[in-house]
Amino acid sequence: MGIVYVVGAGVEGQEGFSARALSLVRQAQVLYGAPRLLELFADLPARKVELNDNDDLPSLVQADSGSCVVLTSGDPLFFSIGRSLLRNLPKEKLEFVPNVSSVQFAFARIKEPWDDAVFISATGRSLADIVDRVVANNKAAILTDAQHTPAAIASELLRRGRDGYTVYLCENLGSGDERIVQTTVQKLPNLSAAELNVVIFIKSYDGDSLVEQRTFGISDNQFVALKKQMTGEEARVVALAKLQLSSGMTLWDIGSGSGSVSIEADYLLPYGRIFAIERNSEYLVAMRSNLNKFKPRNVRVVEGEAPSCLEDISDPDRVFIGGSGGNLWDILEAVDMRLPADGRVVITATTLDTLVSATDYFENSGYAVEVITLNVARTSPDTDYKVFEARNPVYVIVATKDLG
Q1: Which of 53-57, 216-220, 273-277 reaches the highest mean pLDDT?
Q2: How far is the C-alpha of 180 from the C-alpha of 299, rounded, in Å?
Q3: How far apart are the C-alpha atoms of 275 and 278, rounded to whole Å?
Q4: Radius of gyration of the chain (CA)
Q5: What sign for the dihedral angle of Cα 259, 260, 265, 267?
Q6: What CATH number belongs to 104-203?
Q7: Could you point out which of 82, 105, 225, 249 has its C-alpha 20 to 30 Å from the C-alpha of 281?
Q8: What is the pLDDT of residue 15?
Q9: C-beta of residue 38 within 8 angstroms of C-beta of residue 7
Q10: Is the pLDDT of residue 43 over 50?
Q11: Per-domain boundaries in the chain
């Protein structure tokens, strides 16, 4: 096997190839590529091998003694065949000749900078993972597939209450059938899309200062909450401090209620993941309203009852429990199985029953336990005399898993 040249095709046919790329293709004895790319060089005498998704390209080129060129779209190292070739062939046997990718071309068409965008290939990802990446970034370009269509992605964004985006649907770029539609998340599910498309989401802002707030202790009255199903701001600040979060961690917020802890934790986890877990349908409505207002980047809502709903989410580094629905021990057993050594659990409790049950579990399971009692009293602006109104005590249970 000689040098394998991996040549990227532009979106405009042969006009998109550099002089060197065309020279390599014309000198090749064997051309590998999709039928539409091989058709560009139908007049060349080289042996042409059509590729499909099931072909083992590294094995094919290793068995070929003639000079060969692999044709691919755009940049061979951008969601393309280059990664597979590098895993299976020596680097010194490969040379890559990149071209303009469809994503780069799409941004040029809509006249938007792309150096601050995140790029996502739908292939091999779940719909939830794709939308997590969109929500976590200001600008996202997605190479969709037959399952994860623009309509499906938009529907999931709408289900999460995340509709604040300008959307560009870019189809059949560089061809006579090219179409670019500027639209919204609400309208995208009703638009049909060509098989070859790139969809771009650009986050829009309404000037709400809450979107950019980066402070602890958001006032309780800023949240929608039913039946006071919310960790109060003083307890929330202490709980977040005791969680000892760092930027890339995964946090489980079990019994999330209003989502207030998840929303504030999002500011501390710019590269992390937060799973807001709630079973009550009324609380979920309130939580989604709060998520839509504060626009956290890394919060994913998990609907269901813990611990059964925890099976399909990533292992945690930290766990906050604001409500257990009477399943505290079962939840703690499930958490213990997934939490790494030196992982930390923080629970806020207002009853002695929860306090005793939690501390018993942790002490019997080898955790280091600390308990803080918060006695908060506030003045009220609605009274003629400034007197303190006491709140019910809150117990903050902090448990750290034994390193041994």
Answers
A1: 273-277
A2: 31
A3: 10
A4: 27
A5: positive
A6: 3.30.950.10
A7: 249
A8: 57
A9: no
A10: yes
A11: 4-99, 104-203, 209-400
Domain 209-400: assigned CATH number: 3.40.50.150
Q: Are 169 and 191 in contact (CB under 8 A)?
A: yes
Q: Are strands 368-374 and 394-400 parallel, antiparallel or unpaired?
A: antiparallel
For residue 338, give Cα distances in angstroms to 232, 242, 247, 311: 28, 20, 20, 10
Q: At residue 307, what is the residue type?
A: P
The tokens describing 276, both together, are 């807001």
Does the pLDDT of residue 207 top 50, yes or no? no
Write phi, then psi, for 142 (nearest 5 degrees): -120, 125
φ, ψ (nearest 5 deg) of residue 141: -120, 130
Half-sphere exposure of 127 (CA within 13 A, CB side): 15
Host H or E run for residue 192: none
Give the CA distances from residue 394 to residues 235, 239, 259, in Å, rounded to whole numbers and listed in that order.
7, 11, 18
For the chain, report the end-to-end CA distance as a whole number of angstroms: 52
Q: Are 71 and 16 in contact (CB under 8 A)?
A: no
For the domain made up of 4-99, give the CATH fold. Cobalt-precorrin-4 Transmethylase; domain 1 (3.40.1010)
Q: Which amino acid is at 301?
A: V
